[in-house]
TrEMBL record, chains A, B:
Protein name as annotated: NBD/HSP70 family sugar kinase
Keywords assigned: Kinase, Transferase
Organism: Nonomuraea thailandensis
Listed GO MF terms: DNA-binding transcription factor activity; kinase activity
Alphabetical list of SUPFAM superfamilies matching this protein: Actin-like ATPase domain (SSF53067), Winged helix' DNA-binding domain (SSF46785)
InterPro entries named in the record: ATPase_NBD, HTH_MarR-typ, ROK, WH-like_DNA-bd_sf, WH_DNA-bd_sf
Occurrences of domain HTH marR-type (ranges): 19-67
Annotated family: Belongs to the ROK (NagC/XylR) family.
Length: 388, 388
């Protein structure tokens, strides 16, 4: 090819793509010199320098001056992604609590708020608690609503493409609510609503037990049992948002699995439903025979639905999350044995490392993904909440 | 950006990417003019012309001269992808037959060979039949083995990353066989081995009942029941190649489903296993009560495993394929009703339109995908079987 057929349009398009390559290399990585950036992007050094200076002028990158500790030659300037140029919010709206988190564009959490909510609370009350939790985060971080670039809200039950939980939700009155529409009255940024199991799966891959895997079945094991699926590194929602809802199939026994714990004969009178499972796991750990039987039956039923997921997807890894993951020591070995009996290939099984924060963290991750998608589509304007 | 920072490397890289864009636009599409190609790729017209002439010189494109029927002005030359520059082979190695197909790079079938094989035949005999079927195709197309760019072999049972069926195979002695190694003694091109259900799923999306869908559960319904999964437009193999093997879970009843047909009380004596199902479906169509009950029980059990797949993946579409899809008229309505009882969202259900050719066609598609991956990675050398 000769110079005269390289049009101005071609060159501009290439420059934009190259700027994206440089930002991608710096997102979440240590500061780098122009020489390092040129090597990692495959671009020429002079071309890289021009683009980097433009990104600094626009506010996307900041200069890290050399600290002068080098004794050989003049140390080179480094550049880092300016993660503080924007922020996102993740909210976990659960049955008993709302957990909100606010982070910069690198996902570094700047504020957290956890507020209790009555399990029987209606949608208006629950949304008011969510608002309060988000407000606490904004106040702690010193930010206005219009400085938030994306919000994700995690809820129980499958969520359709419109952010509604119309198919099924265990939260009272929630099927008629749109948290996205509610938040849109105060926030101009995009608001996504997503199923809690799916968000927890994202979180485990981002910062938890599944950082090294691309094919993951995440189990939310608690008084409800759910699943989130990551296939080839991507969260799978399904055509209507209902992927992972294997628990609805009676044959796989997830609907009744926790009842083995609630109906444990050695359970003392006066222990409420919310605390029964914890008591049974502790008693099993102390050698209580009836409790050990209850845990064994629970795990056997948990394994049937898990086997259905594993046989369908053949994942690399199963992550046991949710409230019962605190008792993974009592569950994992038997779960592996049961899968060994039914599955052609038994994946590795690990316990969640994120615990109760996994849904809110996954909501942050999805909000960051949303920002990235808009940024890389819009071609990197100067920092401002990118338009939806 | 100024001209002096556009290095020769940057320009060469851009030219290569632009050539790939043009080939992509022409693959499987009608011939186009330079002006049309420029519009569709977003490249400048002079730049497009330079690249097109290079691709013609290399043999990737051929010129379609104007037919002179235009009466207004001079008609423009068109260019088409030269699909005949390379060929691929797809082979379906089944229990009762081997079906081989040979196509050009557009997937247009140039030769087909179908040879019977004894269900009890050992691996050496079965591979010899496969060789013979491939040889018939080569002879019919007038091609040498070194003119084949890729081969895919479809087999029953899950296939691991090494192309082996070590986990489980219903073909006698087949667990110790590597069809890829066998074919490598005669063919220098890449040889892939893949599970038959997965290939049939690919074929239905390529040319069959699922052309408009990206999230597909394909059911192979016959004396064996299997599944192939396409998610977000991509065939999913699973971490160890065992995705879709839900039938191994006893709770979903696929292992025993066909026995309802084989044990139908109205089945006359003397009808062999291979013909029993066809007899029962026909009898049910004619109103035989026992046959209708057998079909209903079969479908009910088929639905349990299907529900597990649907609840796990929430697909857009379920395709009923395999030998029993010829009796889809007796199965589809009930299958939809059963799914309606258990699934949160019932996908559309359609019968396969490709019948007995689906596995071999899917093998062609996978071979073509393999060629494309190598071409677009290697950056379009002049036509020749691209190196693996």
């Amino acid at each position: 090819m000769t110079e005269q057929v390289t049009t101005a349009t071609d060159v501009n398009r290439m420059r934009e793509l190259n700027a994206l390559s440089i930002v991608r290399v710096l997102r979440g990585n240590p500061p780098s010199t122009v020489t390092e950036l040129a090597a990692r992007t495959g671009l020429s050094r002079p071309g890289t320098d021009v683009i980097v200076q433009g990104l600094v002028a626009d506010g996307w990158l900041t200069v890290v001056e050399p600290d002068g500790s080098s004794i050989v030659g003049r140390p080179a300037r480094r550049y880092r992604f300016n993660a503080g140029t924007g922020h996102v919010v993740g909210v976990d709206v659960g049955a008993h609590k709302v957990l909100a988190m606010l982070s910069d564009l690198d996902g570094t959490v700047a504020a957290t708020s956890r507020l209790p909510v009555d399990p029987g609370a209606g949608p208006a009350e629950r949304l008011a608690v969510a608002d309060a939790a988000v407000d606490e985060c904004l106040a702690a971080a010193g930010l206005r609503p219009d400085e938030i670039w994306a919000i994700t809200v995690g809820v129980t039950g499958p969520v359709d493409a419109g952010g509604r939980t119309a198919l099924f939700t265990p939260l009272p009155g929630w099927e008629s609510v749109s948290p996205a529409e509610h938040l849109a009255t105060r926030f101009s940024c995009p608001v996504q609503v997503e199923n809690d199991c799916k968000l927890a799966a994202l979180a485990e891959r981002w910062q938890g037990a599944a950082r090294d895997a691309d094919d993951i079945v995440y189990l939310l094991a608690g008084m409800r049992t759910g699943a989130g699926l990551i296939i080839d590194g991507t969260l799978r929602r399904g055509y209507g948002g209902a992927a992972g809802e294997i628990g609805a199939l009676r044959a796989v026994r997830w609907l009744t699995a926790p009842s083995h714990l609630e109906s444990c004969p050695s359970l003392p009178a006066g222990i409420g439903t919310d605390d029964a499972a914890a008591w049974v796991f502790n008693a099993a750990r102390s050698g209580d025979k009836a409790a050990k039987t209850a845990v064994r039956r629970y795990t056997r039923d948990l394994a049937v639905g898990t086997a259905a997921l594993v046989l369908t997807l053949d994942p690399q890894l199963v992550v046991l999350g949710g409230g019962f993951s605190r008792s993974a020591d009592l569950i994992l070995d038997q779960l592996a044995r049961e899968l060994g009996r039914t599955c052609l290939r038994v994946p590795e099984i690990r316990a969640s490392t994120l615990g109760a924060e996994s849904v809110a963290l996954g909501a942050l991750r999805l909000a960051l993904d949303e920002v990235d998608a808009r940024l890389f589509e819009a071609g990197l304007p100067a920092p401002a909440a990118p338009r939806a």
